[in-house]
Write a structure and sequence with these properties.
Layout (H helix, E strand, L loop, with lengths): L1 H20 L27 E9 L11 E9 L9 E10 L6 H7 L1 E2 L3 E5 L3 H15 L13 E5 L14 H9 L18 E2 L2 E2 L1 E9 L2 E10 L13 H4 L12 E8 L5 H17 L9 E8 L23 H21 L3 E2 L5 E2 L4 H10 L8
Helix pairs in contact: 3-4, 6-7
């Protein structure tokens, strides 16, 4: 038994090392504007943690209920140290062919109460119910009887690679994503909710980035599953047209979920403005927010703790609107880089019915950037 445990630990260690050694977009010479935080991740915003549960099994012909399975769950927790202290938040739908539960109350109250979960389209319900159970498990005993929750759970469609109608995501998978959430570097690419996702007909998935501006941090996490190859632009270069081989499909069938976190003291109306700026970041990459795409974004601020509960008026700090432009710019920059990070980290995947989606080829990306005189100097 000890030998088996040691073998598993060695495998996990090897996996962690491989993830840590993966190049990110900047490592390949992709030029980006702005100054990233320590990890260039949403977790640069103090208190924000991220966890994944990845499900991969089976191969070959699709047998509904049996696989192949290429899916998972990703969790973003705004206040890991104070799970039951809601944060100011707002959401925005650029194109609504998708789902993000709980947003009616986010819009009405101006608060996000609990984590943001991301999974596949047909697993939203089970993940939502699991979050309620998880919160009850962690709720202070004195308020469990009166506890209620409207979880925020978002989705993108992974049916090109995954047995999406097989309902392979279970409550324990959502629990695992939440329980594994941590600060520090965030694993990207074929992980968690992004496991089976496709971006611009390259392998997509989870990506993240951050910016530090004026003493504040803005962090972005994406689950990217949108776009057609000819639309893709990186650093202003038509990368998609320059790398046309092995396209996946002819009509867009995907979506993108974007989570923006900041420690800047912003109120819900300001956060709504921030969420809208995600679209500008995607536009830099060539996104047209196609008819079949669910482009849905949520932004929250970890400032102003304890603003939701209490019997007395809370004292709130707010950044002046005239000081918002650096936050807007940081959001645009981090969104752009997070999507490219997702594609750079993702690996070629073969899924249901042997559908194959290739990874963005690093060498070719560098060659294209060099051709257009956009390749940055790398260490």
């Amino acid at each position: 038994m000890k030998a088996q445990i040691s073998a598993v630990l060695l495998l996990l260690s090897a996996f962690a090392s491989a993830q840590a050694s993966k190049p990110r977009a900047r490592d390949l010479g992709v030029p980006f504007d702005g100054n990233p935080g320590k990890w260039n991740a949403i977790t640069d915003v103090a208190g924000v943690t991220v966890g994944h549960k990845t499900l991969i099994s089976g191969e070959g012909k699709l047998v509904v209920g049996q696989g192949p399975v290429r899916t998972g769950v990703t969790a973003v927790i705004p206040r890991a140290g104070e799970l039951f202290d809601p944060v100011y938040a707002a959401w925005f739908s650029q194109n609504g062919n998708g789902e993000m539960t709980g947003t009616t109350w986010v819009e009405e109250s101006g608060f996000l109460d609990g984590p943001v979960m991301i999974t596949n389209t047909h697993s939203v319900g089970v993940v939502r119910d699991a979050v309620i159970a998880w919160r009850l498990k962690h709720q202070p005993p004195k308020i469990v009887e009166d506890a209620w929750s409207l979880p925020v759970v978002a989705e993108t469609w992974d049916g090109w690679l995954n047995d999406i109608n097989g309902f392979h995501v279970k409550p324990e998978d959502a629990f695992a994503a939440l329980d594994s959430a941590k600060t520090g570097p965030v694993t990207e690419g074929n992980v968690g909710g992004g496991t089976g996702m496709v971006c611009n007909e390259f392998k997509g998935g989870i990506g993240t980035a951050s910016r530090v501006v004026g003493g504040y941090t803005v962090g972005v996490l994406v689950q990217c599953n949108y776009g057609l190859r000819p639309h893709l632009r990186i650093a202003g270069v038509p990368v998609g047209k320059e790398i046309p081989q092995e396209r996946a499909y002819k009509q867009e069938t995907g979506s993108i979920i974007v989570v923006v976190a900041t420690d800047a003291p912003l109120i819900p109306t300001q956060l709504k403005r921030v969420a809208k700026r995600v679209t500008d970041g995607l536009g830099r990459l060539g996104s047209i927010s196609g008819n079949g795409s669910g482009d849905i974004f949520i932004a929250f601020s970890t400032a102003n703790p304890h603003a939701y509960y209490g019997e007395k008026p809370a004292t709130i700090q707010t950044l002046p609107n005239d000081s918002m432009d650096p936050i807007f710019e940081a959001t645009v920059q981090a969104t752009e880089e997070a999507v490219v990070n997702a594609m750079v980290a993702a690996e070629t995947m073969v899924g249901r019915d042997n559908h194959k989606v290739i990874a963005l080829p690093h060498d070719q990306l560098r060659e294209v950037l060099k051709k257009y005189n956009r390749l940055a100097n790398t260490p």
